[in-house]
């Protein structure tokens, strides 16, 4: 017997059945190495990955000089149609030898196998992952496995233990069997040393070291251990073929204590408590099944989504930001190469980095973008003959914009993928660079990183945009995966945000004053947003392109969910137009049972709902995802329902969404309970960051009691407007919907709001009714 009692993590999830595929496994990571644990207890697999490992495909690393054809593309687009202009561009590219190029794929480093025949017939199986410590545990009534990816020691540690001697424990490295990588693994002194060479150059190194208190022999490619009550292994993968590396000293327990302290420091910087109660101890499968069978979105489920989203980011962000699969994969052929897809997915993976208090994640994000700068400059020159930078749709081991050509998207046909004409990527990526300043007030970062990147993104537009009748024209212009025309609304919105932020940054830094008039002139010449006859915001600000609301991307609502350009106070007409466009998207895509189930589209829909005060739709979208299989029992997410395609961008967005429903910030303004679903009617947030250098020490709310309590600290003395859309609140007996408070520097202050008629029937409205249910019929 192992003597183990069932341990349910306070923050984490539990399963009572083995994971039969890696996608259903439990995962951990330290920002450099990722680990997946899956398989039955008699043959458990440990998949190691490393954030830098993208397998070279030997693809062409050049872009033909397409700049001479831009004028003709524009002429054809105006006279023969936008698709004809695109086809001409592709034809010229093919004549010059270009074909669509897949990015180098992210891949597993190796799979370590633990075979224990005595596990056959064993009872009491369970497995868990503790988000707060990063430790994975699997056990039955005969033994226990524990593992974690150490932050201070930079390695993965695994312990197998039992209260009785274990027999015939077989440890081995599974053959990868992939032509793109050749492994030369040598075993000596109970240590595996591996040199893994890529077919097209380069490679990586691995090392696994075993210690135990039994007897061992090596046979048939396995280390076979008998009579041990404990076995410990240290594992490491490094993204280069170089000299040997050493493991730090210490037992599993000693190393875990060092690691636990660092991981907990990160995890407990922010937290959510919705009174999840005893369901917190339910298995992930039980919680998800209840939601599927009953339609209930229990507060415990929302807590799990919040914790898992932060956990994904904390495990993945270190060497690099999260890729499509975070820092994990069990396949050498991942969908979309598990790369950095920059027309929505990377951005969603980064969505919670600020508000959920994970600021350290900006270092790998910034480093990644700056490592691509030369490639981005090359893209701009070769694609359109422009200065500055151009980010393509996809990137991995390079930032070259080579994923364009015919109308294929990876290995499937897609008639609306026109990646050659995606030009707003760099501007969208720059959003996080400036927002880092807005959250932290860090002028050094603004000077050294944000403004230089933004300037080069804007420089591209200075060359690319043409002036027609006093207005700048975006042609060609692509609205992600939803067609091409001129003047996509997203292009306009991204450039408007970019120029505005650059002007503000230059004023703050007191530099580049000579550039400001030029940027202001560009702002004044940007195309105006256009509305449909019914008053909805159009996806293209032109008269010769039809709207298509049955699509998973929410590009034209960028001013609503990302740049926050629209507001009911400053832009009431556009706010209403965006709301109408959002309702059309709900009807034709989100709640249309005949369309696809992309999680990234649902996340952007929910983020729009949070801005519009539509808490009911937030709850409906979360129910759809949780009950439909877009969330695994580990609470990692899938790209589609029915657990189809492991993908973590929705994980990245969940904490931002949940927090935005409870508290939303812009510099100098905080909105209280803007879009609260009924399922979040009582709760507490700790550690949330707000724009303007504000930290939420604690925010409590109770709808039925009609009370909000906020303890908040500002990094500087400033006046902050607190406001709500709900009438009947008072602060210090001052009734209203808006209050101005002077916050001192670095001194927490407490504010308490009361609602005078909170107990009257129907006094509180958590959110307006959505006009459609999830089947698309009238509510």
From TrEMBL:
InterPro entries to which the protein is assigned, alphabetical: 6-hairpin_glycosidase_sf, 6hp_glycosidase-like_sf, AFCA-like_C, GH95_cat, GH95_N_dom
Domain Alpha fucosidase A-like C-terminal intervals: 668-731
Gene Ontology molecular function, alphabetical: alpha-L-fucosidase activity
Domain Glycosyl hydrolase family 95 N-terminal positions: 17-238
Pfam families (alphabetical): Glyco_hyd_65N_2, Glyco_hydro_95_C, Glyco_hydro_95_cat
Domain Glycosyl hydrolase family 95 catalytic, residue spans: 251-654
Domain of life: Bacteria
Any GO BP annotation: carbohydrate metabolic process
UniProt-recorded name of the protein: Uncharacterized protein
Organism: Jeotgalibacillus campisalis
């Amino acid at each position: 017997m192992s003597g183990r009692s069932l341990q349910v993590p306070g923050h984490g999830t539990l399963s009572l059945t083995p994971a039969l595929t890696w996608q259903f496994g439990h995962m951990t990571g330290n920002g450099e190495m990722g680990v997946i644990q899956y398989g039955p207890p008699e043959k458990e697999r440990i998949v190691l990955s490393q954030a830098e490992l993208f397998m070279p495909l030997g693809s062409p690393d050049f872009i033909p000089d397409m700049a001479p054809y831009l004028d003709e593309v524009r002429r054809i687009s105006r006279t023969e149609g936008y698709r004809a202009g695109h086809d001409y561009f592709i034809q010229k590219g093919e004549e010059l030898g270009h074909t669509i190029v897949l990015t180098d794929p992210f891949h597993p480093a190796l799979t370590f196998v633990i075979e224990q025949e005595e596990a056959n017939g064993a009872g009491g199986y369970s497995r868990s992952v503790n988000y707060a410590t990063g430790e994975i545990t699997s056990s039955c009534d005969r033994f226990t496995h524990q593992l974690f990816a150490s932050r201070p020691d930079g390695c993965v540690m695994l312990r197998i233990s039992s209260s009785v001697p274990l027999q015939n424990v077989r440890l081995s490295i599974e053959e990868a069997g992939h032509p793109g990588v050749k492994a030369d693994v040598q075993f000596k002194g109970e240590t595996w040393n591996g040199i893994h060479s890529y077919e097209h150059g380069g490679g990586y190194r691995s090392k696994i070291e075993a210690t135990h208190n039994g007897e061992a022999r090596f046979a048939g490619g396995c280390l076979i251990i008998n009579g041990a009550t404990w076995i410990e292994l240290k594992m490491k993968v490094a993204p280069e073929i170089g000299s040997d590396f050493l493991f730090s000293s210490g037992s599993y327990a000693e190393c875990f204590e060092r690691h636990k302290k660092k991981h907990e420091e990160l995890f407990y910087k922010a937290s959510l408590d919705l009174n999840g109660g005893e369901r917190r101890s339910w298995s992930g499968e039980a919680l998800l099944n209840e939601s599927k069978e009953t339609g209930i979105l229990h507060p415990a489920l929302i807590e799990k989504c919040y914790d898992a989203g932060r956990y994904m980011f904390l495990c993945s962000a270190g060497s690099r930001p999260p890729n499509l699969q975070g820092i994990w994969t069990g396949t050498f052929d991942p969908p979309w190469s598990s790369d950095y897809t920059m027309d929505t997915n990377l951005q969603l993976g980064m969505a919670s980095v600020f508000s959920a208090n994970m600021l350290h994640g900006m270092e790998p994000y910034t480093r990644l973008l700056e490592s691509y700068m030369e490639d981005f400059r090359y893209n701009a020159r070769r694609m359109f003959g422009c200065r500055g930078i151009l980010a393509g749709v996809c990137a991995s081991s390079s930032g070259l914009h080579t994923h364009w050509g015919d109308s294929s998207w990876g290995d499937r046909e897609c008639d609306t993928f026109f990646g050659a004409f995606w030009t707003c990527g760099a501007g969208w990526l720059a959003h996080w660079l400036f927002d880092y300043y807005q959250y932290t007030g860090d002028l050094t970062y603004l000077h050294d990183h944000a403004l230089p990147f933004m300037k080069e993104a804007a420089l591209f537009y200075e060359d690319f945009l043409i002036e027609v009748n006093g207005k700048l024209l975006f042609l060609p212009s692509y609205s992600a995966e939803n067609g091409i025309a001129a003047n996509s609304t997203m292009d306009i919105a991204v450039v408007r945000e970019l120029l505005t932020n650059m002007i503000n940054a230059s004023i703050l830094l007191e530099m580049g004053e000579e550039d400001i008039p030029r940027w202001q002139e560009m702002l004044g010449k940007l195309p105006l947003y256009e509305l449909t006859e019914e008053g909805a915001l159009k996806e293209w600000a032109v008269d010769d392109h039809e709207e298509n609301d049955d699509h998973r991307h929410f590009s034209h609502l960028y001013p609503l969910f990302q740049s926050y350009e629209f507001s009911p106070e400053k832009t009431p007409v556009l706010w209403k137009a965006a709301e109408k466009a959002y309702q059309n998207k709900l009807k034709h895509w989100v709640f249309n049972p005949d369309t696809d189930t992309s999680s990234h589209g649902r996340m952007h829909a929910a983020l729009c709902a949070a801005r519009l005060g539509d808490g009911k739709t937030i709850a409906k979208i979360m129910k759809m995802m949780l009950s439909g299989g877009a969330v695994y029992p580990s609470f990692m997410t899938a790209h589609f329902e029915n657990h189809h395609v492991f993908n973590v961008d929705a994980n990245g967005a969940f904490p931002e969404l949940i927090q935005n429903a409870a508290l939303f910030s812009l510099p100098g303004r905080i909105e209280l309970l803007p879009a609260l679903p009924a399922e979040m009617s009582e709760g507490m947030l700790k550690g949330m960051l707000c724009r303007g250098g504000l930290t939420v020490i604690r925010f409590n709310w109770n709808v039925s009691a009609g009370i909000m309590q906020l303890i908040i600290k500002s990094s500087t003395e400033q006046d902050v407007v607190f406001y709500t859309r709900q009438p009947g609140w008072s602060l210090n007996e001052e009734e209203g919907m808006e209050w101005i408070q002077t916050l001192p520097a670095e001194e927490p202050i407490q504010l308490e709001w009361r609602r005078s008629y909170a107990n009257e029937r129907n006094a509180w409205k958590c959110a307006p009714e959505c006009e459609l249910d999830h089947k698309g019929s009238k509510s």
